[in-house]
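Sanity check. The docking grid for 2'-monophosphoadenosine-5'-diphosphate depends on where the pocket ends up, so I'm generating a full predicted complex first rather than guessing from homology. Inputs follow.
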Amino acid sequence: MADSRETLTINAFVVGYPIKHSRSPIIHSYWLKKFGIAGSYKAVEVSPDDFANFIATLKQGKPGTAVGGNVTIPHKQAAYQLADRPDALAEELGAANTVWMEEGELHVTNTDGYGFVSNLDERHPGWDRAERAVVLGAGGASRAVIQSLRDRGIAEIHVLNRTVERARELADRFGPRVFSHPQAALYEVMQGAGLFVNTTSLGMDGTEAPHLDFSLLAAQAVVTDIVYVPLKTPILKMAEEQGMATVDGLGMLLHQAKPGFERWFGKTPEVDEALRSLIIEDM
Ligand code: ATR
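Predicted complex below; grid placement will be based on this.
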């Protein structure tokens, strides 16, 4: 017989490869403690070769195994492919970051877009009055951002990328309100935009960030970054120096964690300043 502690404890995980830099255990452990829930949330390192096995074990649902968890790089696409029930968000992105078992089936969703807009809602309410948004970069992370901006009803979403084909692919995927441009079109596209989102590693991968003239944006515009290490990325610094309102990417990480916690542990957590400080201390 399983010991009673085991059957009462709800277990969840974050799985990735590598995983040691993940801050998700800090977030979920903070909330578990706050609610006094007998639960655990642990980081698990699983290589791409072993990921299907990891999911197979989860699906067996033996006592003491996890009810679900988060999935991070490089397993987001595989998690979607192995799902029995992907929701519409994961389906459109072809990638999942949150998974849970329900009646023997693996459900998956993607909460990155929710995290992105919730961070803006919290730090800069009214941001969604922007009619035009500029998204710099067309990698994996950019997709969830574009999806969430479209679903929020932003009228025009302009995606610019060094490799323009990748931006084009996203414009095709996300529909008629999403437009693609080469990165060189920034000057023209930034004119009058109410939101500027950086999803690239510009200025952080050994390259120098090009000078951007944020005064081209609308007067009430906000500049945000999805990268949160460092908290002030070169792009955010530049925007701040030019007097722009900015929102850092840390809140996206914190907010994207909420739906998973609610699903696995049955309580709705808050993103508060104490949690933000915990993560900053760990950086
Ligand atoms: P992620 O999943 O984090 O978005 P990614 O898929 O590797 O990572 O995408 C990185 C993004 O940053 C891409 O849009 C990339 O542009 P390319 O598609 O042209 O590669 C962009 N990027 C990275 N370094 C860049 C640089 N020095 N200048 C311009 N864009 C850069």
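Relevant for the grid: The pocket of 2'-monophosphoadenosine-5'-diphosphate is lined by residues 137-142, 161-163, 166, 199-202, 205, 207 (CB under 6 Å).
Also worth noting: The first helix runs from residue 4 to 8.
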